[in-house]
Amino acid sequence: MTSAIGDLAHTLRQSRYTVVLTGAGVSTESDIPDFRGSGGLWKKLDSMKLLSLDTLYYEPELFYTEGLELLNTMRGKQPNAAHKALAWLEQRSLVQAVITQNIDGLHYESGSKRVLEMHGNLRTCSCLRCGAKTSFDLLVDAASRGEIPPKCRCGGTLRPDVVFFGDPMPPSFQEAIQEAQQADLMLVVGSSLQVAPVSYLPSLARQLAIVNLEPTPYDRAARIVIHDKAGIVLSKLVEHIKANLL
Ligand SMILES: [Zn+2]
Prior knowledge:
- The chain is of the alpha/beta class.
- The chain has two domains: 1-32 and 79-119 and 169-246, Rossmann fold; 35-73 and 121-162, SIR2/SIRT2 'Small Domain' (2-Layer Sandwich).
- 36% of the residues lie in helices and 17% in strands.
- It contains nine helices and nine strands.
- Strand 4 (120-127) and strand 5 (133-135) form a beta hairpin.
- The protein is elongated, with a radius of gyration of 19 Å.
- The structure holds zinc ion.
- Zinc ion is lined by residues 127, 129-130, 132, 152, 154, 156.
């Protein structure tokens, strides 16, 4: 792996504009389950149905108990070595943006500034009637008091600002397309690139580097492929770059 790390460091330094695309594999080391990975919960029809617009609208009781419980398993976690390495690379201007499929907010918590969240977040929720945004904690508190569905001041239902099955992509997806189009290098970390339409983004970048435990459909098109854990690889990458700066 050492030579692959060296290649990656070299490619990163040569690139004028690098965009990172992260998936669940970046958060598993923060003890957040990979819901969409092999054997993951999202693969089961139950969970896909649970966190869908249909359930939100027609079975709010189910959505705001079991569905909310599933979302809550992703809260209160700490950034890991992979998040910290990506924040460090951004500070050194070696990374220009992070596009993420994760909703846990750990890129922000680790200090990354330019983060595009493709599947929403767990910081806020929105009113289905008036569109007002409020903190996600309010929604959780209301649901735990038995206020189901939780209501906005206007009486409308509050929903998590997470992209569920049946939801359109958020405006940040257009930004992500622009980022990918101007990228000299897209570094994919911890994503098997299976979830559309985000899985389309790597095809827009000039060069690809992939760090993921499992093979991805883009491995053959990538300049560098490392099948290992995100935290291990990115920590070594940072060490390698630091050593060469001395
Ligand atoms: Zn409202």
